[in-house]
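Operator note (shift B, R.M.): manual run for Alcohol dehydrogenase requested after the automated queue skipped it. Running by hand, logging everything below so the morning shift can see what happened. Input copied straight from the record, untouched. If output looks odd, do not overwrite the archive copy; leave it for review.
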Amino acid sequence: MALKQWILSGLLASTCLVSIAAAGPIENYAPVTAERLKNPEPGNWMHYRRTYDGQGYSPLDQINTSNVKNLVPAWTFSTGVVEGHEAPPIVNNGVMFVATPSGQVIALDAKTGDEYWRYKRQLPEDLFQLHPTNRGVGLWEDKLYLATTDDHLVALDAKTGKVVWDTKVQDYKKGQYLTLMPLVVDGKVIVGGSGGELGVRGYVVAYDANTGKELWRTFTIPGAGEPGNETWKGDDWKTGGGSAWMTGNYDPDTRTVYWGTGNAAPWPGDTHPGDNLYTSSVLALDPDSGKLKTYFQYHQNDSWDWDEVDAPMLVDLQRDGRTIKSLIHPGRNAIFWVLERKPDSIKYVAGWPFVHTDVWKGIEPESGKPIVDPAHKPIIGKRVEFCPSLWGGKDWPSAAYSQKTGLVYVPANENFCGGFTGEKVPLVAGQLWLGTKPEDIGLTPRPGATHFGELQAWDPATGKKAWSHNFPKSHLFGSVTATAGDLIFVGGTNDRMFRAFHAKTGELLWEQKTNSGIMGMPVAYEVDGTQYIAIQSGWGVDAQRIQDALVGKVPGLENNVPQGGVVWVFAVKK
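Run finished. Output pasted below as returned.
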C-alpha cells in the first residue's frame, strides 16, 4: 500500500456510532480515590503504566519463570472494530475497562469476560483521523474519562457507561484530536492534544473531574513575550507542533507532572529556524496551576519527526555511588537518556545510542545537548537520508523498569533508515503539513541487516546492555511490561505472537499466537487470588504503516496480518 493511501486509510475508522448501554450496571464498584491512585493495590491496573511513576512494573509474582510455560487463555472478547488497539485493559477490583478505536469503551467482568456495558461514541462523518486509536480511560471516584479523536473529553458513569459530561477540548476540523489515556491527579483530568502533523500548537490542559470545567491550559510552545519564544522566528510558534499526545507521569512527593512533547512542524528544520522550545522535550508542570516549572529538550530544531512524547519513567537510581531521583527515557531520537529531576531543574546525567544513528556526533557533557551532523539533517529542496528512520529507535510504545533486576526493557527498532526531500508549502487548516510529500518518505533497511526489532535490556546505572532478543523478520512495535515473577511480556511483531521472556537472561519462555498483531500494552492483575495477564490484539496505525513500507525490501516479511480487535486474558493452567 502506498504511503499516501495508508495515511488516508485513517478515514475508514471514523464510522458513525451511537452511544448505548448494554447489560450493566456494575454492582459494588470500588470508588477510585487519590490515595488508591498514589498507592494502587498490587492486583489492580488503574494507570496507563500501573503507577504514577510510569515504570510498567507489576509486583505480582504468582505467574513466574517456573510456571509461565503453563499459561493458557482464560477468556477472550472480540471488540467488534478494526485498526490499532493500543490501550491497556484497565482493572479496578475485578472490573475491566477496555478502550478501542472508534471511541468505544467496554466494561467487562475481569474474571469471566462477561460484558457489563458498552459505550460507543458517535463520531463525525467528516473526521480525518491520522491515528484512529485510543490508549485507555482514566479513573476517578465513580467515573471514567475518555479522550476522543473528535477532540472531546467525556466523563462516563463507571457503573452504567452513561455520559456524565462531555467537553469540547479544541476543534477537530483544524487538525486537533486526542488519542491518549487521561492522567487524573487529585480530581483534575489532564490531557494533551495530538495533531503535530497538521500545523497545530501543542498544549496540555486540565479539567475538573466532576464538572468538566477547564481549570488551566499550558501551551507547549511559548507565545510572544513568554520565556522560550525567542527560540522561534517570527510567527512560526503559532503553528509549531509540539503535540503532547501521550499520558504524562507524576511525582506526588514534589507534586510535579512530567509530560513529553512532540516534534516541531513542519518537519524540515529550516522551515522553523531556532531551537524551537519546548518541542521534543519533557516538561515539568504544576498539576494545580499548569505552570511550567522546568524542562529538558532532548534535541533542538527537530527535523526528523522524532516525537519524544513517551513520558520518562521516574526511578530512584543507584548510580556513581549515590541515589539519583532520575528520569529515564529511551528516546525516539535513538539516545537512551538518564536525567536527574529536581524541584526546579532537570539535569543531564548520561546518554548513549541504543540503536545505530548517523545523526548525532555526540552529546555536550554539561548541557546534554546532542551535536548534529548536518549531512543527515533534512532541509528544503534536497533529499536527505538518516538513521534511524522517522519512526526512530523507539516510537511511542513504552519501555519498562523492573524493580527486581534494576534493568530497563526497551522495544527497539534497529537497522532502519529513512529520508525525504523537504519542501515549503502553505498551511491549510485540517490538512497534513509535513514539509514533504507523503509518497517521498522512505524506509530502508541498512545494508547487511539480519534483524530489525530488538527487545533490549539495559542497566541505566552503567549504560551497559544486559541482553537483547532479535527479530529477523519483523519490527517491534508494542509496549513492554515487567513483573515481580521475573518476566517480561511484549507483543509488537507482525507474526501475531504474544511472548514472555526471562527478565534476567532474555530467554524466551513462552509464546502464544493471537488473532492479529499486538500493539497494545500488557497488564497484570488479580481476581479472587488468581493472577491474570491481559493484552489487546489488533494491528494497525504506525505498526501497519512500517510493515507496508517494508514490503519488497525484507525477504520473508509477513505482510498478511489479519485485522480485528480481541482482548486476550491468560492464567496458569490448573
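Quick read of the result: Residues 49 and 280 are 21 Å apart (CA to CA). Helices lie at 3-8, 34-38, 541-550.
Leaving this for review. - R.M.
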